[in-house]
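Quick one, probably user error.
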């Protein structure tokens, strides 16, 4: 009788909404190019909501409904404000490379250029935290000799890597 109840409950549990908020970032440190390259992947609907919150306007990342240049500038500004590399010298610069709309995911590409060799890399990743308090951001740093992942939450948005 107990197993019959379990069998009846399983299909009902399939319809219980379980929303999770996660982004992934691949970060590549390239000392020979004096560059830190980043690829951020976020769910498109979540990113649209965060951008709408950030800009106080309704934002859709569907390229058929938004002006590409305005959207690109908005995403670039959001990136600069929400992913910060600490301790960079003034000579270092941020470059927004672009973004791709992939229906349920949006990929954002950027780099920090003119980065001298360093002993320590520190950054903060608060992508989507303003729109989703339960947001989790996974950052995977790849260097010449190491590959390490970091989990960013609203309570712990700062990370540090020692070379």
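Nope, works fine. Designed sequence:
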């Amino acid at each position: 009788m107990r197993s019959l109840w379990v069998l009846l409950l399983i299909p009902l549990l399939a319809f219980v909404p379980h929303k999770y908020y996660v982004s992934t970032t691949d970060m590549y440190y390239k000392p020979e190019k004096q560059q830190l390259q980043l690829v951020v992947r976020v769910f498109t609907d979540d990113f649209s909501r965060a951008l709408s919150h950030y800009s106080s306007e309704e934002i859709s990342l569907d390229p058929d409904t938004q002006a590409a240049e305005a959207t690109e500038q908005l995403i670039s500004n959001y990136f600069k404000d929400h992913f910060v590399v600490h301790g960079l010298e003034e000579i270092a610069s941020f470059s927004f490379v672009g973004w791709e709309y992939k229906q349920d995911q949006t990929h954002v590409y950027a780099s920090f250029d003119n980065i001298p060799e360093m002993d320590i890399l520190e950054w903060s990743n608060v992508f989507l935290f303003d729109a989703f308090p339960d947001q989790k951001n996974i950052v995977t740093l790849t260097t010449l000799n190491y590959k390490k992942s970091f989990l960013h939450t609203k309570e712990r948005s700062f990370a540090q890597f020692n070379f």
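The chain has one domain: 24-162.
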